[in-house]
Structure formats: structure tokens, C-alpha cells
Amino acid sequence: MTISRKDVAWSYVATFFRYGFSLLTIPLVAAHLTSDEMGVWIVFQVFYSLLLLLDLGMSQSITRSIAFAWSGAQEITKQGVVLAEDKSGSQRPNERLITEVFAFSDNFFKKIGKYGTLVMASGGSYYLYHITKEAANLNLGSVFISWFLYLGYLFLTLRYNHYAPSLIGIGDIAYTQRVQAIAKILSLASMYVLVINTKLSLIGVGAALLAGGIFERLSLFARLRRHRSFFFISKGYSKETARRLMPNAIRLGVVSLCAFLINQTVTIVISFKSLSGTGSYGLSIQAFSALAGLAAVVFRSNIPRFSALQIRDDVGGIRHTFTCSMIAFVGVYALGSLFIVLAGSRALEMLGSATRLLPMWMMLILGIMVFLENNHGLSATLLSTRNEVPFFVPSIVSGITMVLVVVVSQLALRSGLLGLVIGQMAVQLAYNNWKWPLEVFRQYYRGRE
Length: 449
What we know:
- By secondary structure, this protein is mainly alpha-helical.
- Helix content is about 80%, strand content about 0%.
- α3 packs antiparallel against α4 and α10 (about 275-295) packs antiparallel against α13 (about 315-350).
- The protein is globular.
- About 50% of the residues are buried.
């Protein structure tokens, strides 16, 4: 599989708007939402992360499995890859295998989209009412209207979460990324119109996201229909295909759950104490997370290529592509972090924001923590392109440890936000931050050609 400059260019644009969307909405939400409304918005985003855990890692498995089949793989294994006999990359796509993988994923996301949204509509609504009922500056009617609009967006995201991974798996990267970029632009433009001109605040934000979600799903569906020789030609799939897809998908799902515990526990704890405090911390961590996503665009654009290179056991190609990707990641993140730390607070003041970033010294800690988290995350993702999840057990241990750290720091030590952040950083430094970059070095750089 060849990743063209056009693919990379559109990946940059799409990833800029996907991860930069949060950065671009900061001037809007900071200037037009109160501190309590900002806290509610951050909680919405935590709900989004929580609901996506029901993906169970399936979207990653779909991209990887379809990329394997597109590169000529004759079967999917529960773990590892079956190397191609022809390592030139000229083998014909396995149409039967692609069709079965898509049919299975469509059935999978239909079920979790329906049941996941129902659970979130009930449990999420109760939680939202609990944290907002005593907030004097909030209109509960507006909060819940915006919440149900946001639920519509969550349903579309989860129910059709296999569309983009399927297209990326067959190498249709430029179109997929272009649609995702336009969807974010549409959401952003709608948000500015609705929030600024109609003063709808949270309702305008929810409606804008739903509009972008509808456009994206319809556009991806139309593209999939053009590839009807691979998609939508059958709803059937063999039980063996399901048995081979599910193990690593579930492992990645558990890893995602543990990542949620590590990265979102702090936000959840703060939301019980203060919605305005949630806004400040959420805004700060959101800025660095969005920057990290933007910095990783070259790597994520090449994930299908990594899978194809694994099929051919092309260690040199993997090493070269990964090195270029990481140079781009470090460079973009370093420059962006300098701006956030040195000028972020001043920029918010100029906008008249009611929500402030954390103090500079704490911003430095957050910036380092997010960098280390994403650095080892990219290494782990590379390792998973071999259809293996070596970080399964360590992720579980880290997730459980993070919960224990929160309990001890808040109930026994009463250490506040700083204790939570230092605890989160310590949990990852103990193993994951260094283990997976070292494993990549051992497998692809030390003494291999």
C-alpha cells in the first residue's frame, strides 16, 4: 500500500480540524460560555470518551484487518500476521475477506450504537442532573436540550464508527480525510453562527456537532457504495472471522478503558467538586491533547502502510516511516507547547474568557505528561500493527493503579489537583512511558535490516 503526498496532505488538514477543533473552539466557548457552562461542556467530552470505549478497539482492528486483506492476506489470525509470499506488494486484494470483515463490523456497531446510546441517555442524564442541579448560573432546560443534541452526535459516531476505518483500510485515505475535515469545518462554522448570532450557547454547540456528524456519515456512506464490490454486498460473515477479529479487539478495548481511567479520572473527580474548576483543568489538558493529535498526523496517516509493511516483513520500511513520523511529532509538539505555555493565558485574556488556564508551572507539568503519554502511545500503536497487544496486562495494572492513586490522594492525603496530576504522571512513568519506546527500538532498530 502506497501513501501518497495527497493522502498525507489531506491527513494533515483532517487531523488539524479533528484535533485542532478543540483549539479552534476555545476562543468561542471561552468568550461565550460561563465557567459553569464550560465545565458542563468538558463533562460532555468525557461522556464522549466513555461511550467510545464501547468500540472495544474494533475500529483499529477493522483498519488493520482490511489493510491486511487489501495487501493480499488470505486469512486473519487471532494474533500476529501471516507473511505474504509475494513481498513486492503486488498481490490482489482479497475481496471475500474484506466483505466479511465489513459485514461483521456493521453488525457489531449496530448493536453497540443502539444499546450504548440508551445507557448513556439514562445514566449520563442522571449524572449530569446531579452535578448541575445546584448551579445557580445554569439553565437546566438549556443544559439538557444541548445534552440530547449531543447524544444524537454520539449515536452517529458510534453506530457508523466502521465507515472511515474501512475506507482507510483499502487506501482511500484522501477522500476520507477530506470528508472529515469538511465535517469539522461545517461544525465550526455552524457553532460560530449559532452561538454568536443566536446566543444559544450550549444548545448551539450541540446542534453544530450534530450537523457535522450527519454530513460526515452520509458522505462516507456514499463513498462506500462506490466500492460496492467490497462493501454492502453481503450481511453474512463466518463465525471464524468473528472469532479471529474479536480477541485483539477486546484487548484493545480493555486498553482503551484503562487509558480512560488514567486520563479522565482527574476530570471526573474535579467535576464533583467544582464545574468551574473542571473548565480550567479541562481547557488546559484539552489544549495539549489537541496539539498532540495534530503532531501525530504523519504517524496516523501511515498506520495502513505499517500494516502492509508488516505483512511483507519490511523492517527497513517500518523503521524509516516510523522515524520520519516521530521527528514530525516531536517538532510540532515542542513548538506548539511553547506557544500554549508562554502565550495561552494571554490569548484567553484578550478574548475576555471567563475560564483561565492553570498556572504556568502546572501547564509545564501537563505538557510533559501529555508528551510522554503520546510518545509511548505511538510506539504501542506501531507494535499493535502486527496484530498483537503486548501492552494489555500493563495497561490494566496502570488503570487500576490510577484509581487507587486517586482514592489515596483525595481521601487520605487531600492533595488536590496537583496530587492528582503528579499521581497520573507517576503511574505512567513507572512503566509504560519507557517500556514501549524501548520495545520499538529493540524490534526495529537494534541489529535488524
